[in-house]
């Protein structure tokens, strides 16, 4: 009986050791799984998305200081600057089309809102009479790039009257929007013209005398008496090549490298 009691006690002790060992191993395995899972979650944490900022101050360095500030504010706030181009062609493929696309591609979609308004075949006198220029006041542009219809006026209006008409338009715009940045440019040049270049020279002098920004894109074209000029024009209008040199000049001004 005594031997039987010893045997039972021994069996119980062995069983207790075995069960205890199994319990301990299971506890360690569970803790290892938790630790592994925790590490796995930690590894899957994704870094915060980095914002790519466009250095608008670099691109705008050719522009007036006040305009640089406007562009910087537009970039940081997302409130677009209204850029109105008035008087030029709004046809697809025209310089204005190329210019607008490249401007947005460089500065981003949220800096400039570009509107192109053509005066078609109207002279400056026609624009004054029908008062279509007053539509600019409704748009309240931050920047106005104005191209007077010098080609249409040529031989009809006279340069003194043309400049007077231009001044009337500008007076109206400035009275409504004195903070607007005004830029003025000539239409496309002509090959071997007689009076037209002289009238455009007077437009340039007028702009400079009145402290206006004059964008002389003619600098990008061949010389006026160079037969190569014909390659840039079709029936006195800028063709694909002409529109490209025109757009390139303005883009070099608005987008510094």
Automatic annotation (TrEMBL):
Q: Which UniProt keywords apply?
A: Coiled coil, Hydrolase
Q: Which Gene3D superfamilies match?
A: SGNH hydrolase
Q: Which GO terms describe its molecular function?
A: hydrolase activity
Protein known as: SGNH/GDSL hydrolase family protein
Look up the coiled coil feature and give its residue ranges.
156-183
Superkingdom assignment: Bacteria
Q: Which SUPFAM superfamilies match?
A: SGNH hydrolase (SSF52266)
- What InterPro entries does this protein's entry cite? SGNH_hydro_sf (IPR036514)
């Amino acid at each position: 009986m005594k031997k039987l009691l010893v045997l039972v006690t021994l069996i119980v002790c062995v069983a207790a050791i075995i069960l205890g060992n199994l319990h301990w191993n299971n506890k360690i395995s569970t803790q290892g799984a938790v630790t592994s899972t925790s590490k796995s979650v930690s590894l899957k944490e994704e870094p915060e998305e980095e914002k790519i900022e466009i250095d608008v101050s670099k691109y705008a360095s050719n522009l007036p200081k006040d305009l640089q500030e406007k562009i910087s504010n537009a970039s940081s706030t997302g409130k677009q600057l209204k850029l109105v181009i008035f008087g030029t062609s709004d046809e697809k493929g025209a310089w204005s089309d190329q210019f607008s696309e490249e401007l947005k591609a460089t500065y981003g979609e949220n800096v400039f809102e570009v509107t192109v308004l053509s005066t078609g075949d109207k002279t400056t006198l026609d624009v004054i009479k029908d008062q279509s220029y007053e539509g600019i006041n409704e748009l309240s542009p931050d920047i106005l790039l104005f191209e007077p219809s010098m080609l249409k006026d040529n031989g009809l209006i006279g340069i003194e009257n043309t400049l007077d008409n231009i001044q009337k338009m500008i007076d109206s715009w400035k009275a409504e929007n004195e903070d607007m940045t005004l830029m003025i440019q000539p239409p496309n040049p002509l090959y071997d013209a007689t009076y037209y270049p002289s009238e455009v020279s007077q437009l340039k002098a007028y702009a400079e005398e009145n402290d206006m920004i004059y964008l002389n894109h003619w600098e990008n074209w061949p010389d006026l008496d160079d037969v190569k000029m014909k390659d840039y024009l079709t029936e006195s209008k800028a063709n694909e090549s002409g529109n490209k040199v025109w757009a390139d000049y303005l883009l070099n001004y608005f987008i510094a490298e």
